[in-house]
C-alpha cells in the first residue's frame, strides 16, 4: 500500500494552465515547546538519501520555518536548538509541486538526546487550490503503459485523458478535458523543453530512468503560469548524490509477439529493442554531483497493405518486397547539481533526443524518405536562499526541438499509379491508387527554436492579519522562431501520375496522363518570430492555520510577427486574475475543501490585437521574366474583429476524498470556477506554390 501511495497518488495540488514553474515541493510549519510557546532560532534541516545535499532553514520570531524547492524524495526532518532535545521526523514524502505543513513540538533536554516523532506523512496540499495527479518515475517505468515506452506515457494516468494510439509516431496523442496536445506544454525541471512549433510531447524525449516525479495539473490556480488552455505537466529529473548508484533496463517487443490479420498482405505493428542505463554520484562530495542517462531506441513500425495491393505493387515493380518502417536513435540526458555555498545552489542539464525513422506510405515500393524528430535542449538554474523570508530562482533554457525530412535520391519524379481515372473539374483525376514508384515528391526543413528567461521570488511576511507567502517574478520568451521550407525533388518535376493499361492486370503496365512541375526547387511556406513577456504576483494569505486564500494576477504581452508578409499578427496584453480558497477540514491534513476562480481578459480595442494598417494583406506569387517567384501586388481581404465573450461558472467545493472524480467542466483546462472574457480578431492569408500541371495525351 505504501508503494502504491508513492507511485500514484491523486493529489489536489498546485495547478497551472499550460506551463508550471513550480517543479519541486516544500515543507513549512511552526516550532513550539510543550507549553505551546513559539521557538525562534531553531535550525531545521531536511535530508533524503535520493537527493543531493541538505536543505536548511531557521525559524523566525514567530517560530515559523520554510524549506522550499525540495526535489521529490522521502525526507527526514531534524530540528535542533540549544536547551532542547533534537527532534526527528522521518518518512516525509515530497512530490513534485506538493506543499506540506509539518508543525514540530520540541522537548526540553540536552541536544544529544533525540526525540523521534512517529506519524504518517501528510498527503494533501495545504496551500494551493486545485487538482493534480502525481506519478513517480519508478512507477511509470515499471508499468508497461504502452509498447513504444515513450517518457510521456505518464499522461495516461490523468483523469479524463483520451489517448490516440497508433504505430506511426514516436509518442501517443493525448486529449485531456477536451483540450488537445496543442493546448499544453511539459516543462522539465522548470524549463520549457517543448518545440516552438507545438507542444506535442513527441518532439522531446528522455530516457525513462531520468524522471524522478511528474505532476500533471488538470485544474487550479497559479499566477506564475502563462495564460492558456490544456493540461500542465511538470517533470522533475533525478540528481546525483554522495553515493554512486546506477540502474540498467532492457525492453523488447519482438515481431513474433504481434499478430497479423492480413493474409497475403502486411499489417501495422510495432517492435522494440531498447536498452537503457542511468546513474549518478559525486564529483566533489558534499558540493558537486552528476547524473546521466542513455537510451538507444530501435525498432520497426509495420506498414499496412492489403493482399491485392501487395500483388499489384510487385507487378509494377518486380524488385519490390514488403518492408517495415525502421526507427532508431540515441537519447541521452546529463545533469550537474552543485551547492556553491549555504546560499546558492545551481542545476544545469543538456538533453539530446534526435530520433530518425523511415516514412514510407502504404503505396511506396521502396524507402524513399527518412525523417528526424527532436533536437538539443539546455537549461540552467540558480536557486538562492537570501534570508529566512526571501528566496529566489533565476533560470535560462533553450531548445531547437523540431523535425525534418530528407530523400535518398533527387533525380527522379514520384510516379503515382492509379487503377482508373475520371474527369473532374476539367481534368483527369486518379481513382484507387495502387503504388508509388521511384521517389518521393518533396522534403521538408523545419528549423524551430526558442529560449526562455525566468526569475521567481518568494517572500514571507507574518503579523499582517495572518501570514503571507508572496510570490512574484517574470517569464520571458523573447525569441520563438518557426520556419518551414519545402524542397521539391528532381528540379521541381516532382510528380507523374499514371493509370493502369488494364485495371484488372497491373502486370500490363501503366500510361502517364499528368505531370506536376514546380518552377523552382523550394519554397518557404512559414516564417515567423513570436515573443511573450510576462510578469506575475501572487499572495497566499493564511489568516488561520487551516485556511489559505490565494490572490494573484498575471500580465502577458504577446507579440507575433509573420516574416513572409512582414506583418504583425498579434500585439496584445492579456491579464489573468486568480482567486482561490483552500481549507483543511481536519487537523491530520487528510480532508480538505477548495474552490477557485480564474479568468483572462484582453484589451477592448481591437487595434491593440492586430495592426489595422498592416494585417489585411494577401500577397500571392507570380513569375517574373527570369522565372523567379515574386509576390503579386497586395490586395485587401476582409477582416473581422469583435468580442467573443465566454462566461462559465461551475461550483466546486469538494472534500479531498472526491479528488479522484473529475468534474464535468468547460473545455478551458478544467477550471472549477472560471470566468473568461476574450476579444478575438480573425483574418486569413495564404500563399500558393507556383505549379504547372500538364495533361498528357
Q: Give the total of beta strands.
A: 45
User: What is the number of helices?
Assistant: 3
User: Strand order within the widest sheet?
Assistant: 21-22-25-26-31-32-30-27-24-23
What level of helicity do the residues show?
A: under 10%
Distance between the termini: 75 Å
Radius of gyration, in angstroms, nearest whole number: 29 Å
Q: Which structural category do the helix and sheet elements fall into?
A: mainly beta
What does this structure look like?
- By secondary structure, the protein is mainly β.
- The protein contains 3 helices and 45 strands.
- The termini are far apart.
- Residues 1-21 and 605-690 have low confidence and may be disordered.
Characteristic terms for this protein:
elongated, ten-stranded antiparallel beta barrel, 54% strand, 697 residues, 3 helices
Question: What topology emerges from the helices and strands here?
Answer:
Blueprint: H1 2-7, E1 8-11, E2 25-33, E3 43-47, E4 55-58, E5 64-70, E6 73-80, E7 86-94, E8 99-101, E9 104-106, E10 114-117, E11 130-136, H2 137-142, E12 161-164, E13 173-176, E14 185-188, E15 191-192, E16 211-220, E17 232-237, E18 245-253, E19 270-284, E20 288-301, H3 307-316, E21 325-339, E22 344-352, E23 355-358, E24 369-374, E25 376-385, E26 390-399, E27 402-407, E28 414-424, E29 427-437, E30 442-446, E31 449-461, E32 467-488, E33 493-502, E34 505-518, E35 522-544, E36 547-562, E37 567-584, E38 592-598, E39 617-618, E40 621-623, E41 629-631, E42 635-636, E43 640-649, E44 673-682, E45 691-695
Parallel strand pairs: 2-8, 2-9, 7-10, 14-17, 28-33
Antiparallel strand pairs: 1-11, 2-5, 3-4, 3-6, 6-7, 11-16, 12-13, 14-15, 16-17, 18-19, 19-20, 20-21, 21-22, 21-23, 22-25, 23-24, 24-27, 25-26, 26-31, 27-30, 28-29, 30-32, 31-32, 32-35, 33-34, 34-45, 35-36, 36-37, 37-38, 39-42, 40-41, 43-44
Amino acid at each position: 500500500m505504501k508503494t502504491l501511495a508513492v507511485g500514484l497518488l491523486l493529489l489536489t495540488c498546485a495547478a497551472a494552465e499550460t506551463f508550471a514553474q513550480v517543479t519541486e515541493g516544500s515543507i513549512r510549519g511552526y516550532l513550539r515547546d510543550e507549553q505551546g510557546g513559539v521557538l525562534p532560532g531553531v535550525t531545521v534541516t531536511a535530508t533524503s538519501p535520493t537527493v543531493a545535499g541538505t536543505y536548511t532553514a531557521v525559524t523566525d520570531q514567530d517560530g515559523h520555518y520554510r524549506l522550499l524547492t525540495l526535489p521529490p524524495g522521502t525526507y527526514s526532518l531534524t530540528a535542533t536548538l540549544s536547551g532542547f532535545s533534537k527532534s526527528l521526523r522521518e518518512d516525509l514524502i515530497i512530490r513534485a509541486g506538493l506543499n506540506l505543513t509539518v508543525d514540530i513540538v520540541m522537548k526540553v533536554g540536552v541536544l544529544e538526546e533525540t526525540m523521534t516523532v512517529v506519524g504518517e506523512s501528510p498527503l494533501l496540499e495545504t496551500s494551493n487550490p486545485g487538482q493534480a495527479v502525481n506519478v513517480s518515475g519508478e512507477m511509470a517505468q515499471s508499468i508497461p503503459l504502452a509498447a513504444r515506452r515513450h517518457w510521456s506515457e505518464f499522461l495516461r494516468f490523468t483523469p479524463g485523458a483520451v489517448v490516440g494510439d497508433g504505430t506511426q509516431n514516436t509518442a501517443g496523442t493525448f486529449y485531456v478535458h477536451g483540450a488537445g496536445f496543442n493546448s499544453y506544454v511539459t516543462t522539465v525541471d522548470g524549463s520549457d523543453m517543448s518545440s516552438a512549433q507545438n507542444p506535442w510531447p513527441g518532439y522531446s524525449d528522455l530516457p525513462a530512468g531520468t524522471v524522478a516525479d511528474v505532476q500533471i495539473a488538470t485544474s487550479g490556480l497559479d499566477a506564475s503560469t502563462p495564460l492558456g488552455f490544456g493540461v500542465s505537466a511538470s517533470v522533475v529529473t533525478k540528481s546525483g548524490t554522495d553515493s554512486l548508484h546506477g540502474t540498467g533496463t532492457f525492453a523488447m517487443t519482438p515481431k513474433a509477439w504481434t499478430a497479423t490479420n492480413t493474409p497475403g498482405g502486411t499489417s501495422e505493428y510495432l517492435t522494440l529493442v531498447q536498452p537503457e542505463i542511468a546513474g549518478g554520484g559525486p564529483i566533489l562530495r558534499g558540493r558537486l554531483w552528476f547524473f546521466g542517462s542513455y537510451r538507444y531506441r530501435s525498432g520497426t513500425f509495420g506498414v499496412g497493405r492489403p493482399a491485392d495491393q501487395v500483388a499489384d505493387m510487385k507487378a509494377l515493380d518486380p524488385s519490390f518486397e514488403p518492408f517495415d518502417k525502421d526507427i532508431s536513435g540515441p537519447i541521452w540526458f546529463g545533469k550537474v547539481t552543485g551547492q556553491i555555498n549555504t546560499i546558492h545552489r545551481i542545476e544545469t542539464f543538456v538533453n539530446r533526443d534526435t530520433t530518425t525513422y523511415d516514412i514510407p506510405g502504404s503505396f511506396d515500393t521502396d524507402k524513399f524518405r527518412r525523417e528526424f524528430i527532436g533536437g538539443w535542449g539546455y537549461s540552467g538554474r540558480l536557486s538562492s536562499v537570501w534570508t529566512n523570508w526571501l528566496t529566489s530562482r533565476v533560470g535560462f533554457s533553450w531548445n531547437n526541438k523540431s523535425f525534418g525530412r530528407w530523400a535518398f535520391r533527387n533525380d527522379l519524379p514520384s510516379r503515382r499509379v492509379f487503377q482508373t481515372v475520371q474527369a473532374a473539374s476539367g481534368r483527369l483525376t486518379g481513382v484507387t491508387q495502387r503504388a508509388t514508384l521511384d521517389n518521393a515528391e518533396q522534403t521538408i526543413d523545419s528549423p524551430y527554436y526558442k529560449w526562455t528567461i525566468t526569475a521567481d521570488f518568494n517572500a514571507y511576511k507574518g503579523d499582517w492579519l495572518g501570514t503571507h507567502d508572496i510570490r512574484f517574478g517574470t517569464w520571458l520568451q523573447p525569441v520563438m522562431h518557426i520556419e518551414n521550407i519545402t524542397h521539391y525533388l528532381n528540379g521541381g518535376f516532382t510528380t507523374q501520375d499514371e493509370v493502369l493499361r488494364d485495371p484488372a492486370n497491373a502486370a500490363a503496365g501503366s500510361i502517364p496522363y499528368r505531370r506536376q512541375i514546380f518552377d523552382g526547387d523550394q519554397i518557404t511556406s512559414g516564417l515567423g518570430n513570436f515573443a511573450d513577456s510576462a510578469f506575475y504576483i501572487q499572495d497566499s494569505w493564511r489568516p488561520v492555520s487551516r485556511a489559505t486564500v490565494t490572490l494573484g494576477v498575471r500580465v502577458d504581452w504577446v507579440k507575433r510577427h509573420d516574416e513572409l508578409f512582414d506583418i504583425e499578427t498579434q500585439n496584445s496584453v492579456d491579464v489573468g486574475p486568480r482567486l482561490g480558497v483552500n481549507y483543511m477540514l481536519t487537523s491530520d491534513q487528510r480532508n480538505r475543501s477548495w474552490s477557485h476562480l480564474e479568468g483572462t481578459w484582453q484589451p477592448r480595442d481591437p487595434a491593440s490585437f492586430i495592426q489595422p494598417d498592416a494585417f489585411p494583406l494577401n500577397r500571392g506569387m507570380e513569375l517574373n521574366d527570369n522565372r523567379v517567384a515574386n509576390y503579386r501586388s497586395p490586395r485587401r481581404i476582409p477582416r473581422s474583429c469583435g468580442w467573443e465573450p465566454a462566461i462559465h461558472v461551475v461550483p466546486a467545493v469538494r472534500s479531498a476524498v472526491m479528488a479522484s472524480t473529475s468534474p464535468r467542466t468547460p473545455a478551458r483546462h478544467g477550471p472549477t470556477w472560471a470566468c473568461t472574457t476574450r476579444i478575438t480578431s480573425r483574418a486569413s492569408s495564404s500563399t500558393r506554390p507556383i505549379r504547372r500541371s500538364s495533361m498528357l495525351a
